[in-house]
């Protein structure tokens, strides 16, 4: 796993990004019907964009845990190198997991995963970015194999058909972003204080096979909860209690489990990496510890 470090700017906030002595954050009216409707719709929609239950067991039985992590790290590095939106990277991960789960191949080779990863990222950028990347550009970022354009385009078509052309996926990041935006009185600086560590936790979660058992909404809420606990503890319990009222008991139980697991990983990362600004470097270092453990 050579050359895992990447540019420091993609996830970075300003140099004062972790200051928490900001004004107390007020929450929007709990009767925000627009948010509640959007949240409920996303909860319903996410079921159509998820891998099957026991997907983690399939990955483990086919020795795909480490190769999958390596591919996702490549997504993260490409996101940093080409300044892609976070949503694009999470979509690429979603396409990868859904296809691998649908395919159920029992003889995966790493070159097959790399070809699939290129197709996933290419489609995600075409769907979500103003300016797409050429297939040549995508393959410049530390791949073990190189593929001709016509081979990649064929793989893209196979991927699109397998996914039923359903690309507007609901991901843990889309939930995290939605929930963070629902906190009122966040200027650009305070919002960045909140969403940046949430995003880092979500990147870490994509590489932790234990997180695959949870729905994207559960992971997104847990990441926000962990971040509020650390940065804005005065409103954390109140806001999470409000979100909990919008969920059923099974979802609440899963959030408790996921939050505890994510909190443990966050503590491990904090003990070993006392860094200031957040960056892809810290994401990659921290997540390496997760899947190596």
Automatic annotation (TrEMBL):
Q: Where is the Cyclin-like domain?
A: 73-161
The transmembrane segments are none
**Classification via Pfam families:** Cyclin_N (PF00134)
Q: Which UniProt keywords apply?
A: Cell cycle, Cell division, Cyclin
Q: Which GO biological process categories is it annotated with? A: cell division
Q: Which CDD domains match?
A: CYCLIN_AtCycD-like_rpt2 (cd20544)
Its subunit composition reads: Interacts with the CDC2 protein kinase to form a serine/threonine kinase holoenzyme complex also known as maturation promoting factor (MPF). The cyclin subunit imparts substrate specificity to the complex.
UniProt similarity note: Belongs to the cyclin family.
Protein name as catalogued: B-like cyclin
